[in-house]
What we know:
61% helix; 5 helices; mainly alpha
Amino acid sequence: MQYYSKIKSLCKERKLSLKELAEILEITPHGLNYMFNNDSMQIRILIKISEHFKVPITYFFTDSDKLSNTEFDIDRVFETMKQIVKERIK
Length: 90
């Protein structure tokens, strides 16, 4: 998923380590790494990340790396979210 590189980039821009981000999210660094490595990011964690960095949740579902004027296709966002949910149910 593209959210990993975007989260990593946001951390780098804000001089925040992934360990520090995990603490902010109230999860272990191992848990955060597991989500990244297994492409299993929980929506609630993504929402917390969005809130912490003050970026719209849709930022993580777009191809653009630009924060300003982030355009997105709402149908694509919902399809991506449905796919994530389906994978969780398996």
